[in-house]
Request: fold
Amino acid sequence: MASRIVRAACPHDCPDTCALLVTVEDGRAIKVNGDPDHPGTQGVLCTKVARYTERTYHRDRLLTPMRRVGRKGEGKFEPISWDEALDEVATRLKAIAARDPQAIVPYSYAGTMGLVQGESMAARFFHKLGASLLDRTICASAGATALRYTYGASVGMDMETSPTRSS
Ligand code: SF4
Reply:
């Protein structure tokens, strides 16, 4: 089966910007490796991205919105269409916005970064609704605080202190 290596950069919101070598077979990515020639990371990827293809093609991966049909914690859901999901979310958000927009916690984050996802549309959307304000960070503030406690300043990592190359 013909396969080829495609060069890529990690799309996550992460300062490492690891270089990726993606093995593609018949138009389908089957493996993601770090690029050993990338000076900063020397072929090392974090666990989540090194297993990107497993996650992408995992049989348990959610491919459609799921609506809870049981009590919270009961684990009962039914698949619904995107149109149904968007209509339901819009109906509920509108009702909250009409009652008290600041009751809406504007929780969203970038995930895979792009011009649309990267804190642009979500912020506009929640601002338009009149939602409350929120420090939009999951790991950055916690990480910076941990660095200050540990090193005295949020200095980050010295790129020359690279991790050991993985096989
Ligand atoms: S592969 Fe992991 S460590 Fe490297 S840039 Fe992506 S998220 Fe960051």
Summary: The pocket of iron/sulfur cluster is lined by residues 10, 12, 14, 16-18, 45-46, 49 (CB under 6 Å). Residues 73 and 103 are 23 Å apart (CA to CA). The mean pLDDT is 87.
